[in-house]
Design a protein that fits this description.
Strand order of the largest sheet of chain B: 2-1-3-4
Number of helices of chain B: 4
Distance between the termini of chain B: 22 Å
Largest sheet of chain B: 4 strands, mixed
Helix content of chain B: 25-40%
Strand order of the largest sheet of chain A: 5-4-7-8-3-9-10-11-12
Largest interface: A-B, 28 and 36 residues
Order of helices and strands of chain B: EHEHEEHH
Shape of chain A: elongated
Largest sheet of chain A: 9 strands, mixed
Oligomer: heterodimer
Distance between the termini of chain A: 80 Å
Strand content of chain B: 25-35%
Radius of gyration of chain A: 29 Å
Helix content of chain A: 25-40%
Shape of chain B: globular
């Protein structure tokens, strides 16, 4: 009963159709109301406004009106065409109408007496009824103020426009320029009027990278997620918001086991990895992380499954050559369409953009396995917060698509120790495999252990492994040595004769 | 007789509409040498005309002939500004008389 009552009080929302926005807004924008979108120059306000109309038309056939105060209609059309949106087509078809509210170039405007903005409202009303629009985007009302000397009148008149739009029942986005990332919500004291719903777009420079975020500052009388959410703007989709903390843990959990590509490792994991789980492979440089990824990929494409690898440390040619040296033919798998290699410099773009690219490639290729080599390379180029968001984003996406994932992490110390990546993502991943150098009697050996295996028994030993021409070969557990993971092995032989015997045995083998 | 082509956009029942009309009529009387060719447009009745001329504020007076085009916003109560914006001049000979 009380639930129903609450629902009735709660304002109805209109899904915007902009990826991620509806999640953080818990359903969409307040229907039939105006939402102020405020941000500094270049924060993506115009793109958001145009995308609001485009998404409405494409998803639900809702018609839209764009009121432009800043750009001429032809400029507006040209600008959004950069996103691959055929605005011209929608305008020609009468689905989207543009109201040109820019000042007429070359015309002198003289103020002589009192006035209001009734003509503006009359035009909007007329065009809305002509097109049958349900969505209106007003871009950027800040450009209206310099045209008139009395800002109080403009504010007051804009309030009338907002009330008028509400009477028309259209859902509106109004963009407004902000002078700085902090401080006043919008210029010209505009936040004093359309105060019911405010979205803030931010565009900050962090660690030499642009970091765009959106925040729902307020939605009067309706719920929304709080805090800033990163978003990207790209040529394909426009704005994509990454609703990290709004993501829900709804992934199903599979009992199906799949092979890691190394038979002995499958045994160590209690029969293989779970189909929709994520393994973190952590180790120092040269321990064989890329080899494990290669084996992991091979296990998939040899079964005719598709897999995708995102490499941030090595080029395509290097990866193919490495794989060949381990007896794996990447080129053939690529030709057959079973493998896709995506190689990027970590520095090539921000983490949010990397995440979007990864998602797109996955949705395009539809692989059953994916690998990232290495996560720690990406960690280098971002802030801790962005990195953590990235890892959560990619992990939840991989799980949502019910894929198996393998991430590698390069530790700074040769013999042991942990990295930021480990501390940050160990709780998110399902399994952790550690690769370590082990110094024994003046020789370097490699050791592997399964540190964690969610939902399953796993081998607790640290085993030796070799990198051979046919890949990875896991051997016996190290005997009589402790402290490998800490990086300072201590030998604990029962007596000298055992040690001598072992030494001679080893020599005999060699 | 010089002709001045004008469009006056207003809200028929609006507070400033009637004042703008009155002020324009007074101006016509003040400058008998000019032929005021005024097209009065009620933006609520003919919003498409406001679309055409990209009018935002009401009242708006647009002088389209002679060039240059000039746009005056307001109820025209600031007469000096209107006169100077429209480029209205008292007849040459009366000017000479005065000087």
């Amino acid at each position: 009963m009380s639930d129903e009552g609450n629902k009735r009080l709660e304002l109805e929302k209109l899904p915007s159709g902009i990826e991620g926005l509806d999640q953080i807004c818990q359903g969409g924008l307040p229907k039939g109301r105006s939402t102020l979108v405020s941000g500094t120059a270049g924060s993506g306000k115009t793109v958001l406004a145009a995308q609001f109309l485009k998404a409405g038309l494409e998803n639900w056939g809702e018609k839209g009106v764009l009121v432009s105060f800043e750009e001429r209609p032809q400029d507006m059309i040209r600008n959004v065409t950069a996103f691959g949106w055929s605005f011209q087509g929608s305008v020609d078809a009468g689905d989207i109408a543009i109201i040109d509210a820019t000042p007429v170039a070359g015309e002198v405007i003289v103020e002589a007496g009192r006035y209001d903005l009734a003509a503006l409202m009359a035009r909007i009303e007329y065009v809305v009824s002509q097109t049958g629009a349900t969505r209106v985007a007003i871009d950027a009302i800040s450009a209206l103020f310099p045209q008139f000397s009395d800002h109080q009148i403009v504010r007051q008149e804009l309030q009338r426009v907002v009330n008028g739009l509400r009477e028309l029942g259209v859902t509106t986005i109004i963009t407004m320029e902000r002078e700085a990332e902090d401080g006043q919500i919008a210029r010209f004291g505009v936040e004093e009027f359309v105060t019911d719903n405010v979205l803030l777009l931010r565009n900050r420079l962090e660690a030499e990278k642009r970091r765009r975020t959106v925040e729902v500052l307020k939605f009067r009388g309706t719920a929304h997620h709080k805090g800033e959410f990163p978003f990207t703007i790209d040529e394909q989709e426009g704005i994509t918001i990454i609703p990290l903390s709004a993501m829900e843990l709804v992934q199903r959990s599979s009992e199906t086991r799949i092979s890691s590509g190394v038979r002995e490792l499958d045994v160590m994991c209690g029969g293989g990895m779970f189909r929709d789980s994520i393994v973190l492979v952590s180790g120092a440089t040269g321990t064989g992380k890329t080899l494990m990824v290669t084996e992991f990929m091979k296990a998939a494409f040899e079964n005719g499954e598709r897999c995708i690898m995102f490499a941030f440390e090595e080029s395509r040619d290097q990866l193919i050559r490495n794989a060949r040296s381990w007896g794996v033919d990447f080129e053939e798998a690529i030709e057959k369409g079973h493998l896709r290699l995506i190689c990027n410099y970590p520095e090539s773009k921000g983490l949010e953009d990397h995440l979007i690219q990864i998602k797109r490639e996955i949705d395009d290729f539809k692989p059953s396995r994916m690998a990232v080599d290495s996560l720690s390379a990406l960690e280098r180029v971002s802030t801790l917060k962005s990195f953590r968001e990235f890892v959560i984003g990619i992990t939840s996406f991989v799980k949502l698509r019910e894929m198996a994932g393998m991430f590698t992490n390069t530790t700074a110390m040769l013999m042991g120790g942990e990295s930021v990546t480990e501390t940050h993502i160990s709780t998110i991943t399902d399994s952790i495999v550690l690769l370590r150098y082990v110094e024994l009697h003046g020789e370097m050996h490699r050791g592997i252990t399964v540190l964690k295996m969610r939902g399953s028994w796993h081998d607790k030993y640290i085993r030796e492994y070799l990198v051979t021409e046919s890949g990875m070969a896991i051997k016996e557990a190290f005997q009589g040595v402790s402290g490998i993971l800490a990086g300072n092995p201590v030998y604990s032989y029962r007596d000298e004769s055992t040690q001598l015997k072992q030494m001679f045995d080893a020599e005999g083998e060699g | 007789m010089r002709t001045i082509g004008l469009k006056l956009f207003l809200v028929g029942q609006g507070a400033f509409g009637q004042e703008a009309r009155d002020n324009l009529t007074a101006l016509e009387e003040l400058f008998p040498d000019y032929q005021f060719d005024v097209d009065v447009i009620d933006v609520l009745e003919n919003p498409e005309r406001a679309v055409e001329d990209r009018v935002i504020a009401t009242p708006t007076l647009i002088k389209y002939t002679p060039l240059p085009v000039c746009r005056i916003v307001g109820d025209l109560s600031d007469r000096e500004r209107v006169i100077s914006a429209l480029g209205l001049r008292v007849r040459e000979n009366s000017n000479a008389d005065g000087g």
